[in-house]
Fold:
Amino acid sequence: MKELKTIAGSLLLLLSMSCSKEQEGTSIATQQTNISTYLDALRKKGTTGITSLDDVYRVVLTAGSASKTVGVGDSVIFYYKAGTFSQSASDGFGKMFDTNIDSVAKNRKLDTTKVFTPYRAVAGDNRFIYGLEKGLLQMSEGEQSQLIFTSDHGYGDHAMSTIPKNTALIFEVTMVEVKKN
Structure:
């Protein structure tokens, strides 16, 4: 009887793991559909400047300098707002979970104990999640854009802090400076 319970438990575990993998794949497809629907709605409103690189979508809100585009190894300084993607929100933001903009943090009641300064980094050094890395490499100095991507380019099937697993993300980035290296 004990062996039968062990076998039944093992089968249930395998079945739940299998269902979880299927749901993960469906989740990515659903996220992609939601993002496509949001981008289509923007296009219908006349928004241009929507591009993608490796399924990381960029919606240009303010154009930057065409002569100062971000390349791998360039030093960049930027401000950002980060949240879960929501197709139903007019700006695409669902729950905002991070920013380095003081006024946004206060308005959204985020952690206001940290120091809010522009983020300094080297583009393409794999310091960020894949979607943000690829998105930054599409930008130019002075540009403000939304970067939108599915969870397979974010945190995947791992929950992070207040971000549920299998969640599409949206970053709004303002590229302050690009120093070519």
